[in-house]
Amino acid sequence: MSDSPLNQPNNSLPATAQLISEADTLRPRRRAWRRGVRSMVRARWPLVAIFALGLVVIAALFAPGLAPKDPNRQNIINRLQAPFQTERSGNVEHILGTDGLGRDVLSRLIFGARVSLLVGFTAVLIGGTLGTSLGLLAGYVGGIVDDVIMRLADIQLAFPFILLAIMFLVVLGPGLLNLVLVLGIGQWVTYARIARGQTVSQREKEYVEAAKALGARQASVMFKSILPNIVAPLIVLASFNVASVILAEAALSFLGLGVPPEVPTWGGMLAESRDQLLAGRWWLAVYPGLAIMMTVLSFNILGDWLRDFLDPRLQGSR
Amino acid sequence: MWTYALRRLWQSLIVIIGVTLISFVALHIGGDPTYLYVSERASAEEIAETRAKLGFDKPLHVQYLSYLGNLARGDFGNSLTHRTPAMEVVLERLPATIEMTLLAIIIAISIAVLTGVLAALYHGTPVDGSIMTMAMLGQSMPSFWLGIMLILFVGLQLRWLPISGHVPLLSPLFAGDFATFIENAPNALRYLLMPSLTIAVFSLSRNSRLVRSSMLEVLNQDFVRTARAKGVSEPSVVTKHALRNAWLPVVTMIGLEFGFLLSGVVVVETVFSWPGVGRLVFNAINQRDIPLVQAAVVLFSLLFVGLNLIVDLLYVRLDPRVSLR
Questions:
Q1: Rounded to whole angstroms, what are the CA distances from B9 to A157, B12, B98?
Q2: Which of A164, A277, A289 sits opposite B141 (nearest CB)?
Q3: Mean pLDDT of chain B, nearest integer
């Protein structure tokens, strides 16, 4: 509620008073932050999740520096080398082995983090923004706008999501932009439903009436007054959503509907591993899957913790 | 009850129209869809001829109406690779997919209820902890990766189960051939087990968590305390009092679960070379066989809408409070 126009520091106040009021608005925030860190340390697992995600983010950001080899350099002589195999020189050249084209698995794994995180975050950003705006609109305006938006949501939910994505990507053609757009637009429904429900419950509250009475425009009431008060469940949803989008991206890359095959992705690596499965080349399948699982698991753990932290009433449920 | 049923029917109808609209948009979103139906080396005349034949030269609303008409007759055009009506090709593969999803639902729901109830009864103990950890892991791994791991370890390493292949189970049953059905069943199950388990794990994990929380909620309620105070035995409290109420949220999930399972079908069938609709779609994607992809996706969506409708109506029978809302 600290962001509603009523609580914002008034510019006409003397400088000291303004400083005091700024300190007042800052303090609860800092306290919440500290409370968050403390609860996270107490729960332990979220801390592990943050650490794991940190590794993935670092891998994605500094992939060219971190990767021991060029992820696309083929070397037919060294193809299908098992992990930790020593060369004639006595060194281990490819810690996690090489694939069917002699490319370094570890390097491809590190570069693969880029697509997963990029697609995960952008798609959730697109879906979250779109869904939240539409949900706010439906909940606040009501009437026919509400009916149309929510019926659209029902229709989209009638498609098993991956199939819908397949149908569009087959026609549009694969590629990073199409992938992000299809996955992003596919996510709006859940945000819209939650945002709408929350908005309906907030619409009649006094602070909304007050903002309206002060002459705030509709858009300003929706986005400046109501939005900050309904954002908590949406953040929780976003955390779980990044996890499910990364899983969906892996599935679509596995089907060859993701980014072009020369770009290393975890799902794409799994698709290539299928040809080597019967020959028992386990490392080609095990490592990319573990990378996906570690990333997705971390987002799920964080989501669980965020939900408990932001809404203590739900503690331990689900 | 009847007004509720009628309202739900009406909603489903709108959704079905929406489904057709979206699939129509999907067909046209990349520009002139004629190019999806001709080979890359087609001459200008060939393209023009195909365009006229498929009616893509007419205005959009006319095209949509004829698309609707074709859809109502189940006509998606000929599959570009099979040269026979796309819907026929899909329907031929449907029994294999239904076998897999049906067994998956049975696995998912029965194990989810069992583990969820166990976790709730032993709330806060290591039993609860390990079940919930497994559930968390199950929700975080890509299903097709689990399939690959099962092939590697259960199939190739331990040699317990076959890694691919299929013995028809439902198609003889649909044809009324009971003897073959019974005869095939044990063998068919061996082939079915790994793919079904793979596809079930995600919803199994999610529902296990759902059953646990729903059960915990119910166990804390007054009527359970009363039953215990009356001296009702603990197994009877759990099965007759608590479980019957904790079931309800799970029943609603079953319909939705079916949709998630169908989503997984494409990747999982590809992993196990399962001769169902999913692998058909995978091959159709690679050969850009648009009519086939469209037929499969629309059929799955209609199945999904229908199933959700049935589940919702059943739910009213189970919980009379719903129709009052």
A1: 16, 5, 24
A2: A289
A3: 83
Residue from A171, A257, A270, A292 to probe the interface with B (highest B Cβ count within 10 Å): A171
Q: Do A274 and B209 touch (CB under 8 A)?
A: no
Alpha carbons B281 and B284: distance in angstroms, whole number: 5
What tokens appear for A274 in the block? 């299928």
Nearest CB to B144; choose among A158, A164, A251: A251
Q: Distance (Å) from the C-alpha of residue B322 to the closest C-alpha of chain A?
A: 19
Give the DSSP letter of residue A92: B
Which residues, other chains included, contact A258 with Cβ-Cβ below 8 Å and sequence gap of 6+?
A115, A174, A179, A249, A252, A265, A267, A268
Distance CA B74, CA B171 (A): 21
Alpha-carbon distances, residue A122 vs A57, A111, B1, B3, B305 (angstroms):
14, 17, 44, 43, 30
Q: How far is B260 from chain A (nearest CA, A)?
A: 6
Q: Does B76 touch chain A (CB under 8 A)?
A: no
Alpha helices per DSSP H over B220-276: 222-229, 234-236, 243-271
Q: 0.80 exceeded by the pTM?
A: yes
Interface of A with B in 209-268 (CB under 8 A): 243, 247, 250-251, 254-257, 267
H or E element that contains B25: helix B2-28
Question: Testing the interface with A: which of B32, B128, B144, B309 to mutate, by most A Cβ within 10 A?
Answer: B144
Chain B residue closest to A301 (CA)? Answer: B136
Query: Nearest residue on chain B to A148, judged by CA atoms?
Result: B14
Q: How far apart are CA A20 and CA B74, in angstroms?
A: 71
β-pair partners for B209: none
Nearest to B27 by CA among B293, B307, B313, B258: B293
- Quickly tell me which residue has 């003397």 as its tokens: A14
Check whether A6 has a pLDDT greater than 60: no
CA distances from B119 to B104, B130, B131 (A): 22, 9, 7
B26-49 mean pLDDT: 76
pLDDT at A317: 41
User: Which of B19, B136, B267 to probe by mutation at the A interface, max A CB count within 10 Å?
Assistant: B267
Q: Cβ-count burial of B198 within 10 angstroms (0-12 exposed, 13-18 middle, 19+ buried)?
A: buried
What is the residue whose two structure tokens read 């989503």? Answer: B263
The single-letter DSSP state of residue A104 is B
Out of A277, A288, A297, name the one closest to residue B140 (CB). Answer: A297
Question: pLDDT (tens digit, 9 = 90+) per residue, A114-145?
Answer: 999 999 999 999 999 999 999 999 999 888 99
Name the packing angle between helices A176-186 and A227-254 (round to 10°). 130
Q: Does B266 touch chain A (CB under 8 A)?
A: yes
pLDDT tens profile A232-285: 889 889 999 999 999 999 999 988 888 888 889 999 888 888 888 878 788 888
Sign of the CA dihedral running B253, B259, B265, B266: negative
B184's tokens? 């095939």
Which residue, B87, B130, B101, is CA-closest to B202?
A: B101
Q: Rounded to whole angstroms, how far apart are CA atoms A239 and A224?
A: 23
The whole-angstrom distance between residue A167's C-alpha and the CA centroid of its chain comes to: 23
Cα separations in angstroms, A112 against A57, A61, B80, B83, B110: 11, 11, 34, 39, 37
